[in-house]
Amino acid sequence: MSASAFNDMLAFEGDSPCSQTPRPDYVEVSSPVSKFTLSWSNVTFSVPTKAKKAVKSGGDPSDKRVILKNVSGRCAAGELTAVIGPSGSSKTTLLDILADRVHSGELEGSIEANGTKRDPSTFRAIASYVAQDDTLLGSFTVRETLVMAAKLSLPSAVTKAMIHDRVETALGEMGLRNCANTVVGDVFRKGISGGQKRRLSMAIELLSNPSIFLLDEPTSGLDSAATYNIIKLIQKLCRDEGKTAICTIHQPSSLVYEMFSNIVILSAGEAVYCGARVDMIPHFALTGYDCPEYSNPAEYCIELVNADFEGHGDIRALITAFEQSAISKALSAQIDKDRVGGAKPIMEPKYHREKASPWRQFLMLLQRNSLNNMRNPGIFWVRVVMYTALATMFGTIFLYTNKNVSDNDISVLFFGVHAFFVFMSVAVVPFFVEERSFPPGTSE
């Protein structure tokens, strides 16, 4: 099926002339008039330890494991902040907490947008989160994927023309126009590259035009060239549209490091540094750790705070030095200034992201799954052949037999029918596994 034919199928009743004017609440979300500063102060996150494990180790079953401890930071509109650190330093945990995706454990501290305490419903209307793994259906083209995501996430009042404009804008912002009609691809078919898949995942979240962009490992598994291009696109969004972007990243190159406005360095859940990128090297120099000339500052600092291997610095001294530094005090002062109205503009009182109606979501999911089945011949047609063969086999069992049906015949037929339904059920399992990769809350 062609892309044009697919788009024609998406003309639901919601695209009627009576819905040409979008509702005011959607206009507020799709074209936010305010820019947002995201700040977090003294964030501490802990989870209870398993009782059996605590008893075996001689500890108290009621003890808690501290994942993050007194972490503070700030990212203003138009800034791109990188959260770096060795593996296991709780980078993703911090990002998930900022994105309001952690609903278990004990969370202390404050998270604020423009100096106002974060409200979950309001925050989800202005923020989008890009997960580390690309959850995309490989049988659809890039443009079709964006159209489906828009239909599932945007309000029912949005017309077909508005969705088309939004999709084309997202394609242009993420540099995907050249591959818009190329299938995403999977293990069974060739498609777009890994870097293009990452950009497509970001384009899906850009459909709602968020003011705050949170990305977990947007460059994971990509080469240096693809990493540079993706971070460059995010930096452009921040610079040109005033978005607030925070991303976790592993070992950025020197060129990528230079694109960030702020750097947050974590070690075992504690902040070793949080401030402007240009102040990071001078700060570590004051603590007695000079970054060697011609070295990558990001890699040097990650190795410095990695306690898993030899050659690391005095991490406790580094944490204490940052807590007592002028950078940390200035950060706290700026967060306090935001709270008393120093950060402009202030959050609008009414922000609400209306969702698509349940009926529209049902129709969209039905169309998507039907097309996905038809475009997977290795799955769809094998099932058709299997069902036809089974039906023929059981249908011919009693062919040319006498008209007298015994109890044994009925038992065989009863068993055959039930076995047929079992085969049908097992054949559907792979589709449940595929759909399971779309967690609740994603635009897809």
CATH class group of the largest domain: Alpha Beta
Helix segment tally: 17
**Fraction of residues in helix:** 40-55%
Count up the domains. 3
List low-pLDDT spans: 9-33, 342-351, 440-444
At the fourth level of CATH, the homologous superfamily of the largest domain is P-loop containing nucleotide triphosphate hydrolases
CATH topology of the largest domain: Rossmann fold
Mean pLDDT: 80
SSE order, one letter for each helix or strand:
HHEHEEHEEHEHHHEHEHEEHHHHHHH
Rounded to an integer in angstroms, the radius of gyration calculated over CA atoms is 27 Å
Read across the widest sheet, the strand sequence of neighbours is 6-7-8-3-9-10
Secondary-structure class: alpha/beta
Number of strands: 10
Strand content: 5-15%
Q: Judging from the principal axes of the Cα atoms, what is the shape?
A: elongated
First-last Cα distance: 21 Å
Largest sheet: 6 strands, mixed
Question: Could you list some keywords that capture this structure?
Answer:
six-stranded mixed beta sheet; ATP hydrolysis activity; transmembrane; four-stranded antiparallel beta sheet; ABC-type transporter activity; disordered C terminus; 444 residues; Rossmann fold; ATP-binding; alpha/beta
Task: Provide a brief overview of the structure.
One of its GO terms (cellular component) is membrane. The chain has 444 residues and is an alpha/beta fold.
